[in-house]
Amino acid sequence: MTREVLHVVLGSEACHVSAHLLNLQGLSVTSSSSSSGNETRKGPSCDPSVTHTAFQRVFVPRVLFIDEAAESGNAPSPGRVQSLHSLEDNKNKNSNNDSNTYTAEYEARALSLEENQNLSSFAVWSGSIERLDRKGSHPGPATGSSLVADARESATQLSFASHSRYRVPTQMFQNQGSYSISSNNRTVDWDDLPEEEAEEEEDDDDRRQSEQCQETHWKQHVYPQIQEQLETFWDNVLTPVSALRDDAVPDSENAAHGPELASTNQVHLSLSNLSWRDFWMPPCNPNSSLDIPLSGKKSDDSRLDVAWSHYYPISQASESNVLRSWIEDEFLDRIRQMLEECDSCQGFNIASSGHGAYAGLTTQLLQYLKDDCPAARRFVWSISENASSAPRTSDSNAPSWRTQRIEQARTQMEVGLMWHDYMDAAHAVLDLQLPAVRVQRHALFHNSAILAAALEAATLPYRLAAGNSSLAAAAPSSRIGLKSYYYGDFSGDSSFGSVSRMSFSNFLTNLQPSPGLSVLELDAYLPTAQDGTVWARLQEATNLERDQRIKYQPQLSGTRRPRDNLPGLWMMGTSQGGLLSPLSPNRADDRSVHTHFALASSFRYESSSTNDVTSSSYVDCLMEGMGIRYRPEQAFATHLNESLSSLTTSSGYSAGSYWKHAWGPKPVLSVLGNTTRFFAQAAQIGAGVKQVLSRQSRGFFNRDVANEILPEEDNCHEVLSTIYNLRDKYQPPRGSIEEDDNGLFMD
Which of 506, 559, 665, 674 is geometrically suited to a Cys-Cys bond with 502, CB 3.0 to 4.6 A? Predict the structure, then answer.
């Protein structure tokens, strides 16, 4: 029985992160091979049945994106929207996906082998691709650039081709729709006829030979050239040289410098506001995106501005009939359809942006799932923008002091409301903040990609293919070690158990050793770090390092390491000599003064063929680093013998074409934690809510209550009580915030 995990995304920042994440997950659930026709295919590292489903015989993610509509000039036309519904109606009427026009159109463009064409002159993308009449294959480009649209058309051809890596294996459909042949005399069993069997065997042999020829031609002639063109496109867009054009001169000045400079800058300027719709690559279900019927831009209706900009109206008593009907008739109805397509839904990953309207919409979704689908686990990713990378407002355009004070009071209360509702309806909340690695025009693209790579590694335990017997044989080696004595199988002299894969429920349970401890944090090794070899740092002061030292230096066999040299220094922040950078707000770099309730580390690292280190060795070092120095109540570590670079460069299609610019060749190391490092943020949230309820802010608060932007005062005091209780649960071991004179808990 399939155990699905659904993904719901709300807001621009969350959509950017999730688009990168789904690109990686799409590659991880499919087999890879090089362009050579005789290479053995490498099995998928993750189980496709957890995060993906079959649509038009290809794997597509189980996801729903909620965001503002694209610019009017790029929005789908009514005719195209109608074609989407017509396509779905035809699909429901015809259960044979092979005969579907939708797939046939792209296969005819990508592989026209059924027609008597010369294979040596088979057409590939030359940069001026013929525009197809796409019938809902993907949300349209948001930048309006024809180059982006052309590149994605080529990506669509690759994705839906007969020999695409995203193609669902035939054996997965062999057991579907099977039936028993009746023994009734009026029913003829044609399989019993020997002549027909012989003819069918001959037809099968011919078909297999034909398919092998087509696949060989695809790998050797079609795919490599189109892939090269796609990589060239992303190289031109994301090359580091283009980052120097943040102060690009106007097009009129470019024209004076010659056509070459003007053409190059035109490409860069057209992608200066790169949207998630531009790099979320096919294949995908056309019903995976839903536009919210409000715009963040200023409108004539002030009440719509209030409903859009703030948290409370959406989650409570909004008077916007349009918004309320959209939530019930479209948003929640789409969620119901996703649930109906599941065999047994394990839970939801809900990525939400900020603390405004999308957070209120997330609360509405959580309450709906809590009432109608209580068995499904609800994991919220609250993603906020980094203040250091946000665009700055000039002094001339800055709002007045009064306006700033009103917005500050609203924000403080809305953040408290959001945490109050999340604690009530979600099983776990992962507080995230986009890293400030890049600050140029493509900052959101690069920073969201870094966060997505860390999340992809952190969520490996419940996605690995090792737990699926049909996929485990060809999958890359992996291992999960657990320091949880009621879970896992003990073997050898290991002090912890091990499993091949965890369920989504067990994944969250092992991160929450006690009730009420439901706030998680994420730290990761950033690709911009200059700290030498990650694997060498993980081995420091571990038993593996001791064994290697004794092996190659026998004269030191009786030498003990200093007692204060403990493993796990790599988990410290970069300012404390460690490897990790916090991807959650207000997290101190020094972990040594905090209590660790639960830790989970994930390591995507592919060992070389000459290296005899196994997955067990990697997991042992991770477990020793977490357990000896920080002593968590529960911990687990995951290693996957597949690097991000090998995942995205080996038959990576368009989804992997840009990752060498976003991450590079370095390994992915991420750590999920449930620690008292959250205390500083909880205290800050409580202080903000308390300030709004104080006498100094009474006028601003009463005004927003009268306008139904904020709830009544009694409800706000309940919010403050919830935040204080949450703060007390994460009290550090060395005193409260009032005693924090040396800044140990708050940076």
Answer: 506
* pLDDT on residue 405: 87
CA angle 565, 568, 572 (to 5 degrees): 110
Q: What pLDDT, on a 0 to 100 scale, did the predictor assign at position 686?
A: 95
**CB–CB of 275/445 below 8 Å?**
no
d(CA 295, CA 300): 11
At residue 91, what is the residue type? K
Within 13 Å of residue 518, how many CA atoms lie on the same side as its CB? 21
d(CA 474, CA 427): 34
pLDDT, one tens digit per residue, over 73-99 is 443 333 332 332 333 343 344 434 433
The 10 Å Cβ neighbour count of residue 441 is 18
Please report, to the nearest 10 degrees, the dihedral formed by the alpha carbons of residues 443, 444, 445, 448 taken in order: 120
The first and second tokens of residue 623, run together, are 């477990």
Q: What is the pLDDT of residue 604?
A: 93
Residue ranges for the chain with pLDDT beneath 50:
34-40, 72-137, 173-193, 241-271, 298-307, 315-319, 485-492, 735-747
Q: Nearest-5° angle of CA 247, CA 250, CA 253?
A: 115
Report the interhelical angle of 698-706 vs 401-425 (nearest 10°): 70
SS (H, E, C) 451-498: HHHHHHHHCHHHCEHHHCHHHHCCCCCEEEEEECCCCCECCCCCCCEE
At 117 the pLDDT is 35
As a whole number of angstroms, the distance between CA 320 and CA 153 comes to 38
With residue 599 as reference, give the H or E element that holds it. strand 596-604
pLDDT at 494: 59
Length of the chain: 747
Alpha helices, DSSP H, located in 486-563: 504-509, 534-538, 543-552
Q: With beta carbons less than 8 A apart as the criterion, state whether 640 and 575 touch.
A: no
Strands 497-499 and 478-483, how do they pair?
antiparallel
Residues 6+ apart with CB under 8 A from 554: none
Q: Which residues is 603 bridged to in the sheet?
A: 639, 669
Q: Is 549 left (phi over 0), alpha (psi -120 to 50) or beta?
A: alpha
Token code pair at residue 251: 């097009």
Residue 383 φ/ψ, nearest 5 degrees? -110, 125
CA distance 5 to 263: 45
Q: What is the DSSP letter of 164?
A: -
Could you tell me the CA-to-CA distances from 650 to 152, 250, 645, 660, 723 in Å, in that order? 19, 39, 8, 12, 48
Residue spans of beta strands (DSSP E) within 605-659 = 634-640
Nearest partner of 569 among 597, 598, 545, 604, judged by Cα: 545
User: Chain centroid to CA 468: how far?
Assistant: 22
HSE of 386 in the Cβ direction (CA atoms, 13 Å)?
A: 18
Q: How far apart are the two ends of the chain, measured CA to CA in Å?
A: 48
Q: What is the DSSP string of 646-693?
A: HHHHSS-TGGGTTHHHHT-SS-EEEEEEEEGGGHHHHHHHHHHHHHHT
Q: Quote the DSSP letter at residue 167.
A: B
The per-residue pLDDT for 89 is 40
